């Protein structure tokens, strides 16, 4: 498990998430242009990856909109060399009274279409699970097809790990050739329906990861900092942002830039460098076109 020091640490900023809105925090970027500018300001302060969810016209609802995804990727590329990590999670819907996240479709075709925009990196959700009051749908046929398509397009998957069984499933998919062996593992702690955000749980999940993989972690809400500190001590990369945490401290709303600034300070105080986007590409094995 050991402590890894003096290496570049990758900082990801998760700009808004599927639930982010200005009602919850007025600093949340919700338009395409706001996301580009906010990501750029985070880049200037040390973030090398921007994780994005596109918003619908109401500026609150998450939607799969390929035009918006392309606009953000192209717009940010004009400003800097930041890596864009696009969410492939499903849209919210209702099926026979059941709230779902995803499609009643084994291949989740709308979600697969995101890959045609060729971002450098995308999220890859493993489990079908209760996500709050919703059922998050991730069928095996979709996981296999998405993993193969990512390899075909040289897109790096970021495997979202909510529970121990997700690590086992991901390892199987890698062994079977459906997922790239250099996939990045993101340990997601504190999500409703997933593993609670505690230091013990983080250590347990990290210890269960396949040997030698790249990994990152985050904790929701008040466990944000304990998970960040422990992740650094365990040699992982870190994620911050308004998707995971709306507050800098108790009762004090924050911004993505402020969270990235703190993360960069913590990384440097720990004794590591803050990875540039190109260093992150090298560490993660992202092929540059």
TrEMBL record:
InterPro entries: Aldolase_TIM (IPR013785), BKACE (IPR008567). Its cofactor is Zn(2+). The keyword Transferase applies. It holds the Pfam family BKACE. It comes from the Bacteria. Keywords: Metal-binding, Transferase, Zinc. The keyword Chaperone does not apply. This is 3-keto-5-aminohexanoate cleavage protein. The lineage of its organism: Bacteria, Bacillati, Bacillota, Bacilli, Lactobacillales.
């Amino acid at each position: 498990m050991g402590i890894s020091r003096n290496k570049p640490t990758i900082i990801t900023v998760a700009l808004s998430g599927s639930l982010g809105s200005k009602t919850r925090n007025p600093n949340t970027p919700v338009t395409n242009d706001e996301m580009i500018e906010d990501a750029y300001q985070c880049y200037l302060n040390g973030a090398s990856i921007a994780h994005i969810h596109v918003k619908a016209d109401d500026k609150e609802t998450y939607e799969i909109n390929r035009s918006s995804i392309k606009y953000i990727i192209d717009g940010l590329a004009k400003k800097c060399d930041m890596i864009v990590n696009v969410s492939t999670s499903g849209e919210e819907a209702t099926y026979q009274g059941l709230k779902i996240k995803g499609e009643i479709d084994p291949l989740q075709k709308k979600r697969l279409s995101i890959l045609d925009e060729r971002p450098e990196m995308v999220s890859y959700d493993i489990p079908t699970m209760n996500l709050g009051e919703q059922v998050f749908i991730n069928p095996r046929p979709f996981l296999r097809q998405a993993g193969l398509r990512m390899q075909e397009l040289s897109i790096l998957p970021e495997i979202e790990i909510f529970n121990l069984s997700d690590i086992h499933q991901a390892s199987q998919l890698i062994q079977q050739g459906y997922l790239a062996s250099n996939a990045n593992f993101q340990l997601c702690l504190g999500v409703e329906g997933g593993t609670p955000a505690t230091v013990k749980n983080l250590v347990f999940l990290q210890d269960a990861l396949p040997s030698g993989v790249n990994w990152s972690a985050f904790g929701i809400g008040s466990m944000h900092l304990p998970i960040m500190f422990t992740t650094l001590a365990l040699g992982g990369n870190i994620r911050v942002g308004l998707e995971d945490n709306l507050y800098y401290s108790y009762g004090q709303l924050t911004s993505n830039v402020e969270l990235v600034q703190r993360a960069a300070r913590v990384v440097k105080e720990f004794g590591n460098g803050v990875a540039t986007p190109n260093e992150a590409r090298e560490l993660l094995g992202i092929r540059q076109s």
